[in-house]
Amino acid sequence: MWNRLPGVWICVAFAIASVLFALLATNAYYTSLVVWVLTNAVLASALRFVLQIGELNIATAAFFGIGAYTTAITAVLLGWPFWLTLLLAPLVAGALSALFGWVTLRTKGPYFLLVSFAVTEVVRLVYTQTNAIGGNSGLVGMFPPMAIEAYYPALAVALLAATLFALYGVERSDLGRLFKAIENNDAIPRSVGLNVVFLKVLCVVIAGSAVGLAGGLHAYANNVIAPSDFTFFVAILALAYVKIGGEGHALGPVLGAALLTLVGQWVAGISAWENIFYGAVIVVTLLVFPGGLVGLAARARGLVTRSAR
Amino acid sequence: MELFVQLLANTLQIGAVYVLFALGLTLIFGVMKIVNFAHGGFFTAAALIVTSVVPFATVELGAPLWAGYLLAAIVAIVVVLCLGALVYGIGFQHVLKDLNGSFILSIGLLLILNGAYLAIYGGAPRTVPQVLPGTVSIFGAALTAQRLALVIVAAVVTGGLYLLIERTRLGLALRAVAMDQEAAMLQGMPFKRVALYGFLIGAALAACAGVLMAPINAVTPVSGDEFLIKAFIIIIIGGLGSVPGAIIGGLFIALIESVGGYFFDPSTATLATFILVIAFLLVRPQGILGNVE
Question: Which CATH number is B2-283's, of 1.20.120, 3.40.1000, 1.10.3470, 2.115.10?
Answer without folding.
Answer: 1.10.3470
